[in-house]
Design brief:
Elements: E1 3-7, E2 12-16, E3 19-20, E4 31-32, E5 53-54, H1 61-67, H2 80-83, E6 88-89, E7 95-96, E8 98-99, E9 106-107, H3 110-121, H4 125-130, H5 140-146
Parallel strand pairs: 1-5
Antiparallel strand pairs: 1-2, 3-4, 6-7, 8-9
């Protein structure tokens, strides 16, 4: 059964058949896709209401690795043996389950992420401030600018009026 991921390199959804390559974790083989909300394999159940995994699609994976300073197929690739873990961590090295693309808040549990995102992300002050402004999450802006993705706003001004 296929499911969707979101390619964070160029910003599009892509279909997966249950196994995906995650080279930033240090693994060289495709691994089972597990729902970040339910913690069960994506092939079991309906995950249409669950969080979607940000994962570079196969077509843009090498581009993402190069943007992060790695050269695919060489010795400078991440190694799961070097890191000792495949988990996301906060600035202090504590494990997190994710973070908000709008306000960059770290989530230490799925429940914390769900509470932050509930009711049209009512607990996210940045999203609430910018949600009607037709703009992208501030955390993604530098990544997309570095990738050469043009801004939809032709004025050259940021939402707060700065250039």
């Amino acid at each position: 059964m296929s499911h969707k991921h979101f390619c964070d390199v160029v910003g599009h959804a892509w279909e997966c058949d249950g196994m995906a390559l995650r080279p930033l974790t240090g693994y060289t083989e495709a691994s089972l896709c597990v729902c970040g909300t339910c913690q069960v394999p994506m092939e079991f159940g309906d995950h249409s209401g669950c969080m979607i995994e940000l994962l570079a699609c196969p077509e843009h994976m090498d581009e993402q690795l190069r943007q992060m300073g790695y050269e695919p197929g060489t010795d400078n690739m991440p190694s799961n043996e070097d890191s000792g873990t495949t988990m996301l961590t906060d600035d202090d090295g504590n494990p997190i389950v994710g973070f908000c693309l709008w306000c960059d808040m770290d989530f230490y549990s799925i429940e914390e992420a769900e509470a932050h995102n509930a009711n049209d992300s009512a607990a996210c002050p940045v999203f609430q401030q910018l949600k009607d402004g037709q703009c992208m999450p501030p955390v993604l802006q530098p990544m997309l600018e570095g990738a050469g993705v043009p801004d939809d706003d032709d004025s050259g001004e940021e939402p707060d009026g700065k250039r």
